[in-house]
Structure formats: structure tokens, C-alpha cells
Amino acid sequence: MEQHKPFQYLQHINSPADLRRLPLEALPAVCDELRQDIINELAYNPGHFASSLGTVELTVALHYVYNTPSDRIVWDVGHQAYGHKILTGRRDAFHTNRKLHGIRPFPSPEESEYDTFACGHASNSISAALGMSLAALRMGGDKHHVVAVIGDGSMSGGLAFEGLNNASDTPNNMLIVLNDNNMSIDRAVGGMNEYLLHLHTSNWYNRLRLAVSNKLSDWGLLNDKRRRSILRFNNSLKSLLTNQQNIFEGLNIRYFGPTDGHNVIELVRIMRDIKDMSGPKLLHLHTIKGKGYAPAEQEATVWHAPGKFDIESGERLQDSTDKPRPPRFQDVFGETLLELARLNDRIVGVTPAMPTGCSMNILMKAMPERAFDVGIAEGHAVTFSAGMAKEGLIPFCNIYSAFAQRAYDNIIHDAALLNLPVVLCLDRAGLVGEDGPTHHGAFDIAALRTVPNLTLASPYDEAELRRLMFTAQQPGMGTFVIRYPRGCGSLVDWRCPLEAVPVGRGRRLKQGTHVAVLSYGPIGTEAAKAIAQAEAAQPGLSVAHYDLRFAKPLDADLLTEVMQQFKHIVTVEDGARMGGIGSAVREWADDHGFSPTITRLGIPDEFVEHGTVPQLRALCGLDAEHIAQALLKCLQ
């Protein structure tokens, strides 16, 4: 790790209290140093880059004005918060960010008292901050301020609107800071984004209104009822004069802005002015994602999480290898979806704000009229897909597994209940690595296998992914779920003919006589390595290997064959062990009168920390070495 440069201010800031002792005029220099520190660190230890560069001034202003940790800052989308981590006593440990046993990839109350809430998924800050603000009022801590920082497209999420709606008529004094950079990971989309793009209020108007408000408060004339009436009158008058509606003031939330989110002195002034106002307030900031590093400003999507890079040239550094590498599963999905769309004009694509991450951008570029980015709105993505399916289209709805948790009711009520032909592609299933417990796709198998009408499948490799996608769009398939992991698979030569596989049928990959391994999905390649290790360690051992391919329906013929031939069975899955494939196989055995010894390997009943995928597999007993040990142990 490169040594920290001897910054004039940053090396002496071990807590926000140190920051608050500095004179106001020193803050621009602090921002420059903080931004450079983030650049220095992430060039060598990759992470979420552009978002945190865009919030440097906001972060400094918040900790300068508010008495954290007594005052609460609730971050939305935690990849905005690297500057926050550095200023709150974690600068010396920041080189361990996202590493096994190091500091966490997103703010977490378990790591620091300055981290007030979980924020791995978007759009929850307003609701959480509203609850905190109400609790402070009810418990006599009304002098504790609560700030929600929402940005990176999170205002497009339905939960944000639910929070705004409730905040408008629930006692609270919270401040909502809208960090508006016109981006999520990709370019932000939707009507709210367009509205924010054109929303403007003059600084003169803001200052006049603030002065009048302060005078009325001093005179005791601005109680809560009168404040709401004045806001409604103010909104009507402004609409009349400027022909512009303000949705926030229409909800009785005082609106300030938009203002330059990179002018730290002005931010401090505004925050001090509005800090002690009663009632909900919203401060609208315009910021630039990647601010201060030219390559990131020019290509914010690419620099959202760029990996290692050379600071001077801006060149992104790739791991060098002479061997051809298998493609990423998401790229195989994107290429195959375009092939299928060219063959079937009823196919469309849907993604909630992840077109580049899931490779839906391949279809968007070739057929923009047949691919839809709906913003950070997973539940809507599923129901929108179900509506299209009801009228004859075949939507491929791609959602990261951990984010699909927020669409659980929509999957059940709007897709499966009507057995609609929605193809749900759950990217980032299983252990995802450095993003940690908020992003591991651990729960989709256990959550979905109890839902009627669903077909649940997982490919062993990239070729199987193509075949399953082709199968899913065949007539009469109903709601079809395909889960696959982040990153590269095992096949360099992955382009196979597009052909259907029989639904509910697994396959035997290797014959054996002593013990059977039943694997589900790409974790089967790790199981295959384990079988080879176990047989090498114990000469004469013969292990059979079966790829289940489907979690629902299970292959009754395959399971009957296995149960009749083997007393010892090991199930392997990259999902929650409780309620997953192993549980399904155990239930099937009980229902059909078989009683083999079944060893279930999967993600344990706990939230798994962050680290590389190989490290986390070892922690969970899902690497080849631990699987091999389980095979040998079950025969003792």
C-alpha cells in the first residue's frame, strides 16, 4: 500500500470534532485533500470511486455543521460515503476497505457510531431518518438533528416516495439532502429525474423566504399549522409567477435549492441557516459524479467501480494473463438476450437501473425500443414486466439477486399467481465478494422455491445459461427464474447452439459408487474439483456427480436413481443452506420413503462478511478443499 501523503489538514483529523475546530476558510483545502486521499487509496485498493468523489464537499459540510455522532447522518447508497469513513476515524484503516476482516464496504452501525443505519440498498434513507427524527422528538432528544442524504438516482425508488409522503404529515425536524448528480450507476432515468433537471429556485427567493420565516418564528407566529398554510400559499404563488410546480413544497416539505454541491463554504452557510428550523426540509444540490478526477467526470458509469488504475494516466489496470479468460456470466446473458430478441420479436428487456451491470445495455444499443431501464424500482420492474407478459410479450427482467428481495411480493402476486411468462434473471446470485452482506445473493433459492407456478433454474456454466434462456422463452413456460453468479464462469468457448433443455431434468456428470454429490448451479465446478481431490486423497474412492439444474421442479427420476444407489449424499449450493436445495432434497426423500444420510453444504444461517469470493467460499465451507473434506467425512 502506498503511504499517505503528509496532508496539511487531513492527517490531523481523527474525528469530525477535529474538523469542526478548523476555520471555515480551511474547508476547501480539506476537501481537496480528502478527494486526493480517496483517489490515492482506490487506485490500489479498488472500490466504488466516482460516487464518493462527488460527495466530498457535502460530507465535509455535514460533519462541520452537525454535531456528529450525536446528530445523525443517514446515508442512502453507501458507496457515496468513503469520505465519511475517512473523516470518522477510519483513515488509517481505509486501505482494508472491502478486504476480508477489513472495514466494511458500506456504512454499518456495527462498525462505527457515526454509521447510523444500513445503506447497501437504495432509497431507504428518508424512511429511516423520519423514524429517527420522530423518536428523538418522542424521547426528549429534540436537539438531536437527523439528516438523510439521498442521491445517485435513489429518488426514483418507491420507498423514497413513501418516506416523503409520510414525512409531510408526521412530526419531524429532519433535513433531506438530495444529492442530484443525474446518475445512478448508469444515467438516471424517469420523470423524477427530468423534473429535478428543470427544477430551479433563485438564491434571492430562497434568502427572502428564509428571512421572513425566521422573523415569523421570532415573533411566535409560525406554528406548525401556519407553516403548512404558508407553504401551500407560497407554492401556489410560485406556480402562478414561474409556471413551475414544486412537488416537495406540495408535500409541505420546505425546499431549498438547487445549489452548487461543490461549494463547501456556501453549503456550510445554508446548512447553518436551516439547521434549527422545525418541520421537514429538503436541500437540493447539484453535484458531478467523479468530481475532481477528469477521467471519472467524463465517464462516470465506467468509473463507478473501475478497479485498479494509474492515477496519472487514468489507465485502468487489468490483471495480465496469457491464457484466454472465460466471459462474465452477465455478458453471456446480454449477448444471448440480443440473439433471442432477433429470433423472437415478442422478447423485451427490463432492468431496474443496472443496464451496464447486467449487460442489458447490449440490447439497449441494438434495439432501444425493446429494452427498458425503469430506475431503482425493483418491484415496479417485475409488475411492469408482468403487465407486458399479460398482453403477449415475453419480458426478460434482470435484477441482482439481493435487490430482487425487494420485489418478492411482486414476483408472487403479479407474476406467479397468474403464471405469466416473465423470465426473471437473477444476476449476482450467491456470494458476490467485496460488496458484503447487503449484496450477497444468498436467499433467492429458499425464498422462491415455495412459490407455486415458478420454475427455478441455475446453469452449471455459460453454455447452460444460453440453453436455459432459450428454454424460458418457449411457449407455456410461465414464470421462469434463472439465477447465476457475478463474474467469470468456466468456459472459454461458450457459444453453443440455442436449444431447449427439458424442464425439471438434471443430468449425471460423473459416475460413481460410494457417494453422490448433487450440485446446483456454477458452484458445481467447485464440487467437481473437490471430487477429484477426495478421490486422489483416498485411492479407490468413487464419487458420482449430478447437476440438478432445476430447484423446482426437482428431477424425480434422477433423485430416485440417486436414492436407490447411494446411502451417502452431499448437496452443494451457493445459497442459504436453510431452506435451500439440500432441504428440498431431504424433503423429497422423506416424501418418497428414502432415508439416506444427506450432508447439506451451503451458506450458513448468518450474514456473511465481505472478502474475495474464494475467501468467502472457504469461510462457508464451499471451496473445493472443504467440500472434499465433507465427502471423506461422510464415509467414515
Model description:
The chain has 636 residues and is α/β, with parallel strands linked by helices. The protein contains 26 helices and 17 strands. The strands form 3 sheets. The chain has a 7-stranded mixed beta sheet, sandwiched between helices. It has a 5-stranded parallel beta sheet with strand order 1-2-3-5-4, sandwiched between helices. Strand 4 (254-260), helix 12 and strand 5 form a beta-alpha-beta unit. Helix 4 packs across helix 12 (264-274) and helix 22 (524-537) packs across helix 26 (624-634). The longest helix has 19 residues, at 224-242. The chain is globular. The two termini are 46 Å apart. The mean pLDDT is 90.
Relative helix content: 25-40%
| Amount of beta strand | 5-15%
The residue ranges in which pLDDT falls below 50 over 5 or more consecutive positions are: none
State mean pLDDT (0 to 100 scale). Answer: 90
Radius of gyration (CA) equals 27 Å
The general outline is globular
- The secondary structure category is alpha/beta
How far apart lie the N and C ends? 46 Å
Per-chain topology:
Blueprint: H1 16-20, H2 27-44, H3 50-54, H4 56-65, E1 72-75, H5 82-90, H6 125-138, E2 146-151, H7 158-167, E3 175-180, H8 191-198, H9 203-218, H10 224-242, H11 247-250, E4 254-260, H12 264-274, E5 281-286, H13 294-298, H14 329-343, E6 347-351, H15 355-358, H16 361-366, E7 371-373, H17 378-390, E8 394-400, H18 401-404, H19 408-416, E9 423-427, H20 444-448, E10 455-457, H21 462-472, E11 480-483, E12 507-510, E13 515-520, H22 524-537, E14 543-547, E15 550-552, H23 556-565, E16 568-576, H24 581-591, E17 597-603, H25 613-619, H26 624-634
Parallel strand pairs: 1-2, 2-3, 3-5, 4-5, 6-7, 6-8, 8-9, 9-11, 10-11, 13-14, 13-16, 16-17
Antiparallel strand pairs: 10-15, 12-14
